[in-house]
Amino acid sequence: VTPMPDEDGHAGRSTQRLLLTFRDLSPIRRVEEMRVDFVANASHELRTPLAALSGFIETLKGPARNDTAARERFLDIMEAQAKRMARLIDDLLSLSRIELSAHVRPQTPVELLPIIRQVVDALQMLARDRGVTVTVSAPKEPLVVSGDRDELTRVFENLIENALKYGASGKRVEITLSRAFNVSGGEEAVAAVRDYGPGISGEHLPRLTERFYRVDVTESRAQGGTGLGLALVKHIMNRHRGRLNIESRSGEGATFTVRLPMSTGLMPATRKNS
Ligand code: ADP
What we know:
It contains eight helices and seven strands, in the order ααβααββαββααββα.
């Protein structure tokens, strides 16, 4: 920023004003740039399956009109592309819904172990296909947090599905629940999803929760990914005043850990009165 002289030619109050303006505008411009990037990325991601669909429709109307075998194959591919578009739109809508309510903290008591077990059951088929054993270990006492059941289910679906998709070569996925204290002494529920797959090298770690960021776009697409899963997890965690921590090294698997304030710790007024 070049300091601007005031009317008398001195770099005085106007310089200060100029600096303040610069500071105020820069975050707004950053948010604006992020929005523009997001719309461009989302459009590109939606255009890819749409282009494939248009191409196959043309072929089916023309050269493949009477080719029954090709028709079946193309219809399967078209179905997969249509599903991909639907998944993308679902994830985009979920993200904007969660962002809209970012300032409202969900307050329903949710016990973590049953939702994790439910997600593991739902993903049993994928685990079997990948030849992966999923283990769950948890303390005896229930871990209850204040939250939104559907959103927390979404968090574990994304983390466990990713461990199965990207960490499959390790043949083992471990989910560990525990309780801990945070730096301010509040009690937290901790859930860690660990896989023993190829892991993620350091330079990618800080960017993994960005929308559409993928270490390998081709692999993500082949796995039916949208690149929005971890962005969703991050936003849900923020809304729940929780945290997501990712630890990984190339060749050493990955651990995704979520920490959520425990329900009892959130209600000191109730405890005081009881
Ligand atoms: P996607 O829809 O591509 O799975 P995510 O936001 O869930 O999107 O994840 C972003 C990227 O992070 C993935 O494309 C993958 O490259 C990487 N990733 C996520 N989980 C793991 C994991 N357990 N092991 C290795 N890489 C992972």
